[in-house]
Each structure stands twice: as C-alpha cells, then as structure tokens.
Amino acid sequence: MEPYFSPLSQIYPEPDSEKTIMGSVVYCIHHKDGCKWSDELRKLKAHLNVCKHDTAACSNGCGAQIPRVLMEDHLKYTCPERRTRCEFCGQDFTGHTLENHVGSCGYEPLYCENKCGLKVQRRHLSPHKSNDCAKRLVGCRYCSKEFVADTLPAHVTKCGRVPVTCPNHCESGLLAREDLDGHLKDHCPSLLVNCTFREAGCRFKGLRHSLDKHLDESTKSHLNLMCTVVNKQQHQISSLKSALQRLSLNQTGTLVWKISDYSSKMSEAKTKEGMELVSPPFYTSQYGYKLQASIFLNGNGAGEGTHVSVYIKILPGEYDALLRWPFAHSVSFTLFDQTSVPEKACNIVESFIPDPTWKNFQRPSKEPDSLGFGFPRFASHEVLKKRHFIKDNTLFLRVKVDPSKIVAV
C-alpha cells in the first residue's frame, strides 16, 4: 500500500517551517529491513518508488505483493504464474503445473530399485526391472527354481535337470544331468563293462548285454582264478599272522599268567589224567631265549592229586644260533596271594638255577622237551584253599627269568 501525503500547505502554513522540515535528513522507512538510504525528507517519496525493500505487485499478475529485493527470486522460482521448462523432457509449464509434473516426468533418470547400479528414465524403469535388470529374479528353464539374473548362467552349468546326451551315444536320447551316472551304471546298453571277476584276473570287457553270456561260459576259468586268489590270500594271511605274533610276543623276560575259570579246569584235571595247561610263549629279551610255562592243576609226578605242579621249558627260538648254551639264567615262579590288603599278602615263591648238565637246558631241537624243568609239588591244594590264591575263580602265576644270576660254566 502506497503512503498517503497530505497537502503541505495545510500542515505547514508558514513557508519557512515547510522548508526547514522538508530539508531534514531522514532514513528510509525500510531501514530495519536493510535499506541504507538516507537523505532529505522531500526525496523520500521518490526513493520509495525504487526501494528494493518496498513491496510491489508481481509483474506476472499472480496478485502477490513482493518486496522489490525478492522480486527476482519470486518471478524465477516461486511465482505460480511463472513460465519454466522441465530439465528432463524440455516442456514448458507454469509454476503450479510444474509442481505436479515434477516426480512424474517420464524422462527423469532414476536408480533401479533392484540395486543393479543403473540409472534408467522413469518411463523405461518398469520394462527394465522386468526384462533387463541384472538383479531381477529369473526362473531356471530346467528346474524352475528362481535365481538372480546374473547368477543364472553359473547355476545352469551345475543344474541337475539340464538335458545331456549319453557319452556312449546310446539310443536313450536326452537325459537329465543328475540321472546320467545312474544311467551309465545300470542301464546304458552301449557301455563297455568289465567282468565282475576282473580283480581275480579276468580281462573280459564288452557291452553290458554280453556280460551275462560271458559269465555263463566262463564259470570254470573264473573258479580257477578265484582259487588262485584264495591261495594267495591264505599265504598273505599266514604271513601277517606270523608278523603279528612276533610283534605281540612278550620280550621282557617276565610272564604274568592269568588262569581263569579255575574250578572247571580243576574238575577237568581230576577226571583227565595228565591234563597240562601251557602259557603263551615269551622271550627273555628282544633277541633272547624263547620260553613257555606249563601247569598241572591236579599235580604231576610226586605232586599228582595233592599239589599244583609248575614247569618251564625252552622252545626253539629265532636267535638260538647266537645265544650261549646251555641256558643258565635263574627262573622263579610266584603264585600271588590276592588278598584285599596287599601288605598282608603271602605269595608262594620257588626258584632255581639251571644245572648245565641237564638236557632240558641245552639248545632245543625242533621238538622241545614235553615236560621241561620245575616243581611237581609247587603248592598244595590245602594251602590254596586257606588263603586268597584263588579269587573270582582266577589265579595268577608269574614266571620271571633273571639274567643276572648265571651259573659259571
């Protein structure tokens, strides 16, 4: 609204007063808004006509009163009647129609929502996501499972439902990749197969349908091959048994012999004359003498029917040719008292030093002495009952060879 000025002749009836007042220096009424103009009062009206801080009607006819300092921005950016052009499609719009157009322009480039990294015009975005986007979901044409488009080629190289042809060019046609192994193993008529006796030495190789005929016609030769294999395996088993036996032999010079099921073995010994139990063989050292203990639960010789008799015999060993003969190490037998208080145990111990003149201690032949050397009256049956030599129907006998006690010969 423009200022109203009353006739000066009515306000200042004296000419000198008017001249003095109108010559006074004043500031623009928009001084607080940033206008720095100041001059005589008479020049204020002319200044207000050009003051940028004074309002004026929009020149586009939108009806707004705009400070002159903001008029340029208003006409360019905010006036609803301004004319402007869309930066994407190039069409001209008025201000209020442009606001509706922004956000819907088909030519505006947008990033794909699938995060493939591409910018596509809004009008092409939907076809891009459906047909071209590297991150769209695509179904495998063979197994129907969905994959991200750029991973589909890698899947197809491994997909089990991809059709392939039989490498033997049989008449089965196309097969699913995952069924190929089963086809080759069990069904392909063009596959060359080995005879089922191949490991036995048969060298036949032919088409699957000819295998049955071959098996029928070659029964005798296959049997001969299997007999050869069995014989070879028996030799190998014997060799392995011998090696295992050597590895498992006791080589410490001490044997702790566990005799279980004592009552039944004693009953059998009483009814069967001369029943002898023999221990596992053992060596006095790694390259020493080979020995074996034996026991007669119902006695032998002077101890028959009243005592337990124990003996030691020398067996032919692998290193006899390198050993000193006759055998001269002392030997002790210990029958353990299995009392629950070890301090109160009363073991039965007998030992001897070999007589070098006895045949039993000479280098053994291939057939060792049937009896050996020992104690016919080692422990009486009455003593066995009085203490805990038999516990849980088991007794323990230790046979120990002491190389430090040798008779000088």
Automatic annotation (TrEMBL):
It is found in: Cytoplasm. It comes from Megalurothrips usitatus (bean blossom thrips). Its main location: cytoplasm. InterPro entries: MATH/TRAF_dom, TNF_rcpt-assoc_TRAF_met, TRAF-like, TRAF1-6_MATH_dom, Znf_RING/FYVE/PHD, Znf_TRAF. One of its GO terms (molecular function) is tumor necrosis factor receptor binding. GO terms for biological process: regulation of apoptotic process; regulation of canonical NF-kappaB signal transduction; signal transduction. It comes from the Eukaryota. This is TNF receptor-associated factor 4. GO terms for cellular component: cytoplasm. The lineage of its organism: Eukaryota, Metazoa, Ecdysozoa, Arthropoda, Hexapoda. A zinc finger (TRAF-type) spans 46-99, 101-152, 154-203. Residues 46-99, 101-152, 154-203 form the TRAF-type domain. Keywords: Cytoplasm, Metal-binding, Repeat, Zinc, Zinc-finger. Residues 252-401 form the MATH domain.
